[in-house]
Write the structure tokens for this entry.
Amino acid sequence: MTERPVYIVDGTRTPFLKARGEPGPYTPVDLAVQCGRPLLLRQPFGAEEVDYVILGCVNVPSEEMNPARLAALRLGMGADMTAFTVQINCGSGMQSIDTAYKYISLGDADLILAGGSEALSHAPLLFRQEAVEWFSSLSKADSILEKVKTAASVNPNFFSPVIGLKRGLTDPIVDMNMGETAEKLAFLFEVSREEADQYAVTSHMRLHRATEEGFLEGELEPLFTDEGKVYDRDNGVRPESSVEKLAELKPSFEPPYGKVTAGNSSQITDGASWVILASEDAVERYDLTPKAKIRDSAWAALDPAIMGLGPVLSVTPLLDNNDLALDDIDLWEINEAFAAQVLACLKAWDSEEFCNEVLGRKERLGKLDHARLNVDGGAISLGHPVGTSGNRIVLHLANVLSRQEKKLGIATECIGGGQGGAMLLERV
């Protein structure tokens, strides 16, 4: 079957709001609805004419099972709108786009709303397993005497909750949290603390400049609360950041000599992003203006302990399949899970030993020009709402390709659990 071309015709995202020790004002569905409503209202087609709604979300609240469906209904897309949620950890927002891309390319759809939404500030507090077993014993006790006896065995520690997000960011196979995997890459690729801090400062400077110069206008839709408060920009950016200030922070995961700190890691945030994908038929039918064409996508998997190298493992075959080199790509979006992780990926591509032994190549792929990478900042300054980030980097890449009048771009991310995803875009 001949595959049809697929275009990104529009998209928008919310400001990313930093979690500040309490549940934020929005749930994942709230974010998805506020983000999607203005996007759909400005289209020349009715919302009910969309074929599917696909949403990436990782920390799904129990009150919002299948948030894609709830968002579609609240957006007025009709009771007969098929909507489903996808989850591949940090790649969920990109997976929604890739699933839509394949549906349209194979002729199964013409218009799809694909997004990502995450409210990490709403991650639950969990009872310990011992507490769960105690509650179970209490409920099964038949007599009053048994209930009293079981109640008396209560341990106060049962009521000390486990932070669900902390558990979710720890890989159960290798028993390492994501920060520890970044520390491993920093060691393996000799990423210095100063390099990581300098990268983090650059991320903040670039996002601040992009915000002040209006580069994000048209991409960002403000959020409103019931009390009338407005969020119109990403609130985690620190333009006053400096290498000297970051050097004062203690390592978060491997004290005292670790390289990964709160200052050079992605922020825990809430946010949503949507893109509209269309076939060539839909573009002509509704007189749409494509931002970019999706040329190809690739996914890869690797040892969870070095999950941060996911971009290297997914991008390399993507380049090979399209007869491209690193220098052929005009713009890059690599999700900034950790500064050390991004820098390790760049060093891996530039390592002849790594490229030979791991990628099976005779020569190194070369240096990736930092001037082409995350030109408006990334997750270190923006934040990393896990189910959203993969969607945001694809949307932003399409917008930057247009703004800078460049031809090719790649968006890619590492994925907790040891995977990676990548998408190749071409400006129309």
